Amino acid sequence: MKRSILITSAMATTAAAAIASAQGAHPQGGTLTVPIITATFVEDFNPFSNAQEDLVRGTMFEPLWAHNVMQGGIDFRLAEGFTYADDLMSMTITLRDGLTWSDGEVLDADDVAYSISLGQEDATLDKTGKWADELLASVEAVDPTTVRVTFNRPDSTFDWYVEGIYIVPEHVWRDVEDKITFKNSDPVGSGPITEVVTMRDNQVEICRNPHYYKAGDGLPFLDCIKFRQYSDNAQIQPALMAGEIDWGSNFIADIESTYVARDPENHGFWYPANDLVNLYLNTRKAPFDDLAFRRAMSMALDRETIVDMAAYGYPTIATHATGLGEYYAASFNDEVDAEYDQYVAYDPDAAIALLDEAGFVDIDGDGFRETPDGAPIDFGIQVVNGWTDWVQSAQMVTEYLAEVGIRASTETVDWSVYDSTLKEGSYEVSMSWSTAGVDPIQTYNDYYHPSRVGQGWHVNHGKASAEMGALVDEYGQTTDATRREEILAELMVYTGETMPFVPLFSNPTWYQYNSTRIGGWPTAENSVVQPVFYSVGRKLAVFEGLYQK
């Protein structure tokens, strides 16, 4: 007997289908143009290298399924369903019949088992993190459309992480010796858009998969996606206003007057709440090894002014110190939050008092504090070069810190540096987001599970622990709602007590659209999916509903 969890696609919420059915069938044709911030495009379509992940995720390499948090269901893609065993020691995945790769080869359970098992061979290929934390014991193809994943311990959450697995063709990848440096210049994929027709340093155009499994349903409506290269948000804004871009996923200054007002009928935006943005502190280094200093940093910040001035009021300020933002508002714990909310309230006088009491005082009279042992304090806040709203936010943070005697600077870095220092834990302070997944436990997993150290971005602050990892594991091994709520409360308390990061604001879902050429956009009134371009399933769901007008 198996435990059924939304076992077929017919039983699941399918965002793309909802969009398409609401609009009816449309003729095929047309090209969607989207911006990518990068120095240059290169002929590299390897999903594992992170070189150009936004060109391939979802639309070139389709997931087995994707959760739609906004609608509370699952959009089944290559798979038609899955089941957990009653003892929660395995999952059985059932694929759709008749799947093929873009080169015409059969896509079957062997490909899926191979793709999942790549993470066992090499931790850098483990997109779920579930080989690293030793959840997965084995994976096997039972028959051409059935895959069984066996666990080392009971688990009811593995389906949350499956979206991140890149399903790749075994007949292409099995002979690749170094799967990270492989360029995959002639990609073979499973998604709706796989054929590279234009490859330039400032533009890449990828067109429809000739063997896509939904072709018989007339999907996708659009023929191609054109990716255009831009250096930063400042270049994207005029391009969006000039109609060069159809789908924007970037910060746009004063969007109502600079964009919407120019063509109210066709220019629109929708910014639903997304992930919580934090200042991650390296608690292994002074002065961040001192809890009083970390709390004082947080209390020195006027988040409302930062949001209004640096981000035009689009984000939602963080009001809780317990690790969750507005994306997970349904999981807030009022009792726990009340204990720690004081540490995210703007109170420079309290911040100064904390610093004085902890021995962080101005010894040399230059207006800036030293550590209790007399060492100067002067640290950088890392942010990616070109992320203009975040750069401005970081600059304002340094100004507020200066007002309480803390010297800091904004350190703009290339993406590669940002990526490596977060993974290695070699930063001092880094401004980054948090996981916004299916369940809040995924956020805490990314914050504290020791298996994520060296793998994830947001766990290398020095406060990951076996105890917190055990709580995360227990959450996934029970279906008891009361115990799950207790576990979340314990993790919230730990966050409030240790404060390894300073919450700033809930990042909005940056989403602008131009309906001059393309129709079918999700809106606040048609909120069938959170319109995130930098997401496997959500991008795919939005794209599937778009059509040429």
TrEMBL record:
Origin: domain of life: Bacteria
Keywords carried by this UniProt record: Signal
Domain called Solute-binding protein family: residue spans: 77-453
Main location: periplasm
Subcellular location: Periplasm
UniProt keyword annotation of Signal present: yes
Signal peptide: 1-27
Annotated InterPro entries: Peptide/Ni-bd, SBP_5, SBP_5_dom
Entry's family note: Belongs to the bacterial solute-binding protein 5 family.
The name this protein goes by in its record: Peptide/nickel transport system substrate-binding protein
